[in-house]
């Protein structure tokens, strides 16, 4: 919701993009991509022009989450045009390879693919580019954090200790390279039964909030473990589009308002 200054400090310039927000997690499977697309949609609902870049080269999920497939067009033999759906500009390595093709690439190739998707895509003009980061704190993450002028990072974690330990590493990495932590999102804390509406804290509850307090970074809110979020993700229609008035959608909107 707040306006960020122009991307600064990085060696990688991203034409057409006013500000870049990374969505990161310490490990995979915690809901980083699902938060990324719903956050992008919630920012769109705030009236911003928004793009979503899938930097998760080894496990691209934006094509499936956004229900978009096919190859991007190339203009003047160089600039790729982003795909679009739901009013978002989208780019993913998944648009360029078949879904079951493994990306057998070493670090430098991963970074060059990410850099291409930043600089050789005709973005914008965009107010915000949300980047769905690869999980962990490897080479690609570090390069992104150091060379791309990130306005800040949103960290997604489940409440479990293990996920939190990994999240802590991610936070430490961003802090070390002076990328502001916009806050932590706790995902999959409370399970809401689709039959009875009853609540169970399957992976515990409150761990991410406590961690945020301990680290002195904002706690952005929690998203429950909800069947409909998973079903609609698989169907290529994010919950913010399928059920915009649901409490789950409200959760993502509350996060967008704080970043
Ligand atoms: P990551 O990007 O961290 O690997 P994903 O966003 O791909 O994680 O989510 C992993 C799986 O969990 C997906 O099948 C997704 O639909 C599901 N998922 C994510 N968040 C939720 C949630 N709050 N409730 C239910 N399912 C979820």
From TrEMBL:
ATP binds at residues 26-33. Keywords: 4Fe-4S, ATP-binding, Hydrolase, Iron, Iron-sulfur, Metal-binding, Nucleotide-binding, Transit peptide. Its cofactor is [4Fe-4S] cluster. GO terms for molecular function: 4 iron, 4 sulfur cluster binding; ATP binding; ATP hydrolysis activity; ATP-dependent FeS chaperone activity; metal ion binding. The keyword Transmembrane does not apply. One of its GO terms (biological process) is iron-sulfur cluster assembly. The keyword ATP-binding applies. In the C-terminal section; belongs to the Mrp/NBP35 ATP-binding proteins family. Belongs to the Mrp/NBP35 ATP-binding proteins family. Binds and transfers iron-sulfur (Fe-S) clusters to target apoproteins. Can hydrolyze ATP. Homodimer. This is Iron-sulfur cluster carrier protein. The chain holds residues 129 to 387 of 407 of the full protein.
């Amino acid at each position: 919701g707040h306006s960020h200054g122009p991307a600064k400090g990085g060696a990688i310039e991203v034409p057409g993009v006013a500000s870049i927000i990374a969505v990161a997690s310490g490990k995979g499977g915690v809901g980083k991509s699902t938060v990324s697309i719903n956050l992008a949609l919630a920012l769109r609902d705030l009236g911003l022009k928004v793009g979503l870049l899938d930097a998760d080269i080894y496990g691209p999920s934006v094509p499936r989450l956004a229900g978009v497939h096919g190859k991007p067009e190339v203009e003047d033999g160089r600039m790729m045009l982003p795909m679009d759906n739901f009013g978002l500009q989208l780019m993913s390595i998944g648009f360029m390879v078949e879904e079951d093709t493994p990306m057998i690439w070493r670090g430098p190739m991963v970074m060059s693919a990410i850099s291409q998707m930043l600089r050789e895509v005709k973005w914008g003009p965009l107010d915000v580019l949300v980047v769905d980061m690869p999980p962990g704190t490897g080479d690609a993450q570090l390069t992104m954090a150091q060379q791309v002028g990130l306005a800040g990072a949103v960290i997604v974690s489940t409440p479990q200790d293990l996920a939190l330990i990994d999240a802590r590493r991610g936070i430490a990495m961003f802090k070390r390279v002076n990328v502001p932590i916009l806050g932590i999102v706790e995902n999959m804390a409370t399970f809401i039964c689709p039959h009875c509406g009853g609540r169970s804290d399957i992976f515990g509850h409150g761990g991410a909030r406590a961690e945020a307090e301990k680290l002195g970074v904002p706690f952005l809110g929690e998203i429950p473990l909800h069947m409909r979020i998973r079903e609609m993700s698989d169907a290529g229609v994010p919950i913010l589009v399928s059920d915009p008035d649901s409490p789950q959608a409200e959760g993502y909107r509350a996060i967008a308002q704080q970043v």
